[in-house]
Amino acid sequence: MKDRFHFITVGIFLIAALFGFTQIKDATEYQSRVLRHVVFLNLNEQATDSIVKMKNQDLLELEENITQIRELEFGTNIQEDADYSHCMFLTFKSLEDLKSYEEHPMHLEFASTYGKYVVKKTELDYWY
Q1: Distance (Å, whole) CA 4 – CA 10
Q2: 45-61 per-position pLDDT tens digit
Q3: Who contacts 12 (Cβ-Cβ below 8 Å, separation ≥6)?
Q4: What's the chain's Rg over C-alpha atoms?
Q5: 88 SS3 class
Q6: Long-range CB contacts (< 8 A, 24+ apart) of 63-72?
Q7: Residues with Cβ < 8 Å from 65, sequence gap 6 or more?
Q8: Of 17, 20, 32, 114, whose CA is between 20 and 30 Å from 102?
Q9: Gap between the Cα atoms of 34 and 30, Å rounded
């Protein structure tokens, strides 16, 4: 009877320890998640190669000057018959950082400068 009690007690401690480690792991994973902001764009014919190059340069300046941006990518679609011609991929630490970016004067100026070249746009935000 004493051995059985000891076995059950050890089993309970092992289950509790395993559950505790799982909870810590889940909390750590949640804290390490990032927010992805993806913008799909279809640009008009006025968006020449030189305009797209200027846009790329200005995006680099956004990344360098807006501290909330963790990572930024911009690319041209290689599929000819696609619905969108370009994609911007931004990473943020939090929803608050995304909101700060959206309201940042540099971002607003960027959107005003290049918005006239956009004929179609879709945005997608998700936690990763």
Answers
A1: 10
A2: 999 999 999 999 999 99
A3: none
A4: 24
A5: strand
A6: 65/106, 66/100, 66/101, 66/104, 66/106, 66/107, 68/92, 68/93, 68/97, 68/98, 68/100, 68/101, 68/104, 69/97, 69/101, 70/34, 70/97
A7: 106
A8: 32
A9: 9
Q: What SS3 class is residue 53? A: helix
What is the distance between the alpha carbons of residues 100 and 70, in angstroms, rounded to a whole number? Answer: 13
Q: Which residues pair with 121 in a beta bridge?
A: 41
Nearest-angstrom CA–CA distance, 125 and 115: 20
Q: From CA 39, how far away is CA 12, in angstroms rounded? A: 50
Looking only at the bridges linking them, the beta strands covering 35-43 and 69-76 are unpaired
Across the range 33-42, mean pLDDT stands at: 97
* pLDDT of the residue at 9: 44
**What letter would DSSP give residue 76?**
E
Neighbours of 65 (CB within 10 A): 11
